[in-house]
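re: that chain from earlier
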Amino acid sequence: MPTTDYWSYAVGNGNFDFSAFKSEKTGRGPLLEGWQENCSPVMTAYKLVTIKAPYWGFGGKLEQALLAGERALFLESHRNCFGWIDEWYGMTVEQLSELEEQGDCLLNQKISKPLLLTDTEDHESKFTDNSKTHLQQGVKT
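^ sequence. v structure.
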């Protein structure tokens, strides 16, 4: 189903075909027409987003636009989470935290944002010897 709203375009639409996807590790999928009515158990996720733009005349429209962006990001993140289930299913909390930290480092490198490291141990624990580009961006306090 093609989308025409800006945020779906900006956030992106995953290239997963969930009607053909089946997880090897969990056996979940494919997601065929009407899967929501036949799914058990169901997980529900809530996210509270508060946006206040106290600008007379366009504050309400700005708030609605930002909320639409948050919704698009939230939906796409959950789609990706399901599409990548075989990559993370079965990991421990520690492994997931490490994976999240690696993703943060890659994102910071991509947007050229320096990392804030608190001490030498922190600096050495985050990077291996083959990550010279990350080391150059490390900032000690």
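Confidence is low (pLDDT under 50) at residues 128-141.
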